Amino acid sequence: VQYRTKTTIQTNINKENLLVWQGQGDLIYRSKTNLIMGGGSGQCGATPQQAPAVAPANVKTTASAGAAKKAVTAPTSSKSPAAAPKVEVEVEEEKHTQIAIILYTLYGHIATLAKSIKQGVESTGAKCTIFQVPETLPPEVLEQMNAPPKPDYPIITADEIPIYDGFLFGLSGRYGIMPAQMKSFMDSTGKLWYSGGLVAKAAGCFFSTGSQGGGQETMGLTAVTFFSYQGMVFVPMGYIDERSYSFDEPHGASPYGCGTFAGIDGSRKPSELEKGLAVSHGKHFGTITAKLAR
After folding, report:
1. What is the pTM of this model?
2. Nearest to 13 by CA among 80, 82, 73, 59
3. pLDDT at position 215, please?
4. CB 99 within 8 A of CB 168
């Protein structure tokens, strides 16, 4: 048995017939000239002319550590399928990489970038969920700051994050460092630091600042201390997309991660260039995280 792809497995039977797993609950028995598909239970049959005279020995695949298994059976005799000898094939089901985007956004810039990053992450086959951290400012202060309503993302707690393989933190700049809301969330992970619950998990970050150079790099630098204490693997964006050093227009992003400029009053929105870089960042992060999670 050879595990060929995430959805296909093949077994040679008597050198003339082939058992093919399609990955959606169906098992296909293929002879030299006939192809018969079974139902979702994994049952399939063959025409009498093409079926092998003797049922082969049981065959099983090897499954990688941590992968789920699914057993299916198929008759290989020219007799009735109900009475036929069966070949047992143990099929490895795909384990998707799980990535969480954890953000704090005040005027929506980080939330906009997060959507583009999610698009890039999911293009690698990973599953991606966007969360936000709790707000610490009182409603009356947010009103005075003309802050819009928060996006409709679930609020995450430290107890929920160990199930994920990697994390991208969305940071709104405050005097060149991350906001207090995100720092408060990171400070709540002491139990995970003590237990090693985040060791070897991928970590990255992306940014929104009020002005050029107002924290696009220093936020990345200061976030690395959290990653280091937790034993996480920092995955920077680097210069994997040549548009990141383009001079055609002002734009956020640094080797630490993608980014945007909000403007002093928060009126500037992420540009198409910045959103494109965010897609590239997400794709890069998803690819590296999948390798680390193996």
Report:
1. 0.70
2. 59
3. 87
4. yes
